[in-house]
Specification:
Helix content is about 50%, strand content about 20%. It has 16 helices and 15 strands. It starts with 5 loop residues before the first strand and ends in a 6-residue tail after the last helix. Bound molecules: guanosine-5'-diphosphate.
Length: about 475
C-alpha cells in the first residue's frame, strides 16, 4: 500500500439519480474540505470546515473549484458529504463519500477535480484491498464482498453474507491455532532436544489432525454445493421436437423477466442462460439449441444431448401429453437415467392422450426413477410444483443450515478450495511421514505446508502479486 489517498466513482457508470464518489486515505478529509463549500443566507459561499467535523456526519453543500489562487469559487455540483474517520470506515482509513448528481459526466467532473487536487484514481478493488491490508477484514471476507455483489438468488446472498460475517475465517483460524502449537513445540524440541521430548508428539499431532482433516474434507465436499448455491443448478432441458422445450423456456422467462442474463458460452457455441423459478436459480445448458426453430434433437444429435445431460446437475425432460409416447421419447428419457431430474408432461391444457399413470408405467419398465409433473407451458400450470421439487432436491437442507446458527459452511471460491486441497495433500504427506517413523524434522516441512495453505485462505502469508490478482477482478470503486 502506498499510503496515498485514492478516489473512484463507486456507483455504476451510467446516468442515474445520484453517483457516489469514494475517497479514502490520509488526505481524504483535507482535500475534499478544500473543494467543499456551504451557502450563506446572502448566497455567498463559505468554506465548510470538514476538518473539524465529527466522524459519521452528513454535510450538505457544494463542490467548487479550488480557490487556492484566491479566485471566487465556481460551483461544480450540489452534493451531500458523508464523513467517516479512521478506523471506523470501510477501508479503516479516513473515508469521505461524495453523493453528487448522477450523470456520468458530472460524476466524472467531480472526480477529475479530486484528481487535479492530488488524489490518485483508485484501482479496481483497491478500497476492499485496503480494508484487508489494514486488517479490518480477512481475505475470505474480502472475497465475499464480490460474492454479495454477484449473488443472483436469496440463498447465494445469504451464503455470501455468512462468509462476510466471518464463518470461513473463524473455522480456518481455529484450525491454524491447533497447528501453531504443534509447529512451535516441534521446532522448540528440534532446537533443544536435550530438554524437550518428542515421545508424545506424534500422538498429539495425530489427535489434532483427526480434528482438522474431517473439517477440511467437509469444506471440500461442500464446495460442490457451494457452486450450485452461487452459480445456479446446471440444468439440461431435453425432449423430442415439438414437445414444448422452447415454450417451457419462454414460460419460465416470462415468470422471471428481471433476472435473465445472456452469457455467450466460452467453450462452445451455445448460450448459457440464468433463470429463476421462484427462489431457485437455474443455469440452463444448451439453450441455443432449444431456441433454434430447427429440429433440436435431430440437429444437435443424441451425443450432444447426452453431453449436455452429463454436464448438468439436473435434467428436465419434456413429454407431450396430447400425443402418444414415442420411441424417441423413451430414448431421451433413458439418456437422463443417471441424473436427478424431473419429467414434465407438457400441454396439460390440451386433450389428454398420455397421463401420468401411463408415463409412470413406461419409466418403471425402463428402470427410470423420476418425478412426473403435469405441466402447461401455455398456462404455467405445474410451475409451482416444479419449484418445490427443485428446492427439495437441492436447497431444502441448505436453506435450513444457512439460516440457522448451527450451519454448514459452503465455500464458493475456487482459490479457497485449491488451498484446502493443498492443505489436505500436506496432511496426507504428514501422516505418511509419521507412519514411516521418519525423523521428526521431516514433519516440520509438511506441518508448515498445512499451516501455510490454511493461512493463504484467510490471507496470511499472501504475497503482493497474489493480492493484486485477487483484487483486480473487483469492481471499480469497491
Ligand atoms: P420444441 O420444439 O420442443 O421447442 O417445442 P415448441 O416450444 O416449439 O412447441 C411446439 C408447439 O407446441 C408450438 O406450437 C407451441 O405453441 C405448442 N405448445 C408448447 N407448449 C404448449 C402447451 O403447454 N400448451 C399448448 N396448448 N401448446 C403448447
Amino acid at each position: 500500500m502506498d499510503g496515498q489517498t485514492i478516489a473512484a466513482i463507486a456507483t455504476a457508470s451510467a446516468n442515474g439519480s445520484i453517483s457516489i464518489l469514494r475517497v479514502s486515505g490520509p488526505e481524504a478529509v483535507c482535500v475534499v474540505d478544500k473543494l467543499f463549500y456551504k451557502k450563506c443566507s446572502d448566497s455567498s459561499l463559505k468554506t465548510a470546515n470538514l476538518e473539524t467535523a465529527a466522524s459519521h456526519t452528513i454535510h450538505y453543500g457544494f463542490i467548487c473549484t479550488n480557490t487556492d489562487a484566491g479566485d471566487q469559487p465556481e460551483i461544480i455540483d450540489e452534493v451531500l458529504i458523508l464523513l467517516m474517520r479512521a478506523p471506523k470506515s470501510y477501508t479503516a482509513e479516513d473515508v469521505v463519500e461524495i453523493h453528487c448528481h448522477g450523470g456520468a459526466y458530472i460524476a466524472k467532473k467531480n472526480l477529475d477535480l479530486l484528481i487535479e487536487n492530488g488524489i490518485r484514481l483508485a484501482e479496481p478493488g483497491e478500497f476492499t484491498k485496503r480494508a484487508f491490508l489494514n486488517g479490518r477484514i480477512d481475505l475470505t471476507q474480502a472475497e465475499s464482498v464480490m460474492e454479495i455483489i454477484s449473488a443472483k438468488s436469496d440463498i447465494a446472498l445469504k451464503n455470501a453474507e455468512n462468509h462476510l460475517a466471518g464463518d470461513v475465517k473463524k473455522l480456518i483460524i481455529s484450525m491454524r491455532e491447533l497447528l501453531l502449537t504443534d509447529t512451535a513445540y516441534l521446532e522448540a524440541a528440534l532446537d533443544d532436544p536435550e530438554h524437550i521430548e518428542l515421545d508424545d508428539f506424534p500422538a498429539t499431532l495425530n489427535n489434532h489432525l483427526n480434528q482438522i482433516e474431517p473439517e477440511i474434507d467437509r469444506l471440500i465436499s461442500n464446495s460442490e454445493n457451494g457452486r450450485i448455491i452461487s452459480d445456479g443448478i446446471k440444468t439440461a432441458i431435453v425432449g423430442r421436437p415439438n414437445v414444448g422445450k422452447s415454450s417451457f423456456l419462454n414460460c419460465i422467462l416470462r415468470a422471471d423477466r428481471a433476472i435473465v442474463t445472456d452469457i455467450p458460452g466460452t467453450t462452445r457455441d451455445t448460450l448459457e442462460e440464468d433463470v429463476r423459478i421462484g427462489s431457485v436459480l437455474l443455469k440452463l445448458i444448451d439453450t441455443a439449441g432449444i431456441r433454434s426453430t430447427e429440429d433440436t434433437i435431430e440437429k444437435i444429435g443424441v451425443e450432444k444431448t447426452y453431453a449436455s445431460i452429463e454436464e448438468s446437475d439436473f435434467t428436465i425432460c419434456i413429454l407431450d401429453s396430447s400425443e402418444e409416447i414415442t420411441e424417441k421419447d423413451i430414448e431421451i428419457l433413458k439418456l437422463t437415467e443417471e441424473k436427478p431430474g424431473v419429467i414434465l408432461l407438457n400441454k396439460s391444457d390440451l386433450n389428454e392422450v398420455t397421463n401420468i399413470e401411463k408415463v409412470k408405467e413406461i419409466i418403471q419398465n425402463n428402470n427410470i426413477n423420476k418425478n412426473i409433473i403435469n405441466f402447461s407451458a401455455a398456462t404455467g400450470e405445474g410451475l409451482k410444483t416444479l419449484e418445490t421439487l427443485l428446492e427439495e432436491t437441492f436447497f431444502k437442507e441448505f436453506y435450513q443450515e444457512i439460516n440457522t446458527n448451527n450451519k454448514e459452511i459452503y465455500i464458493t471460491n475456487t482459490r479457497q478450495k485449491e488451498c484446502l486441497i493443498n492443505a489436505k495433500n500436506s496432511i496426507t504427506n504428514l501422516r505418511r511421514t509419521m507412519q514411516q517413523n521418519l525423523p521428526e524434522d521431516l514433519l516440520t516441512v509438511d506441518l508448515l505446508d498445512v499451516y501455510k495453505s490454511l493461512g493463504l485462505i484467510v490471507g496470511e502469508e499472501v504475497e503482493d502479486d497474489l493480492a493484486d490478482k485477487i483484487f483486480k477482478d473487483f469492481c471499480m470503486g469497491k
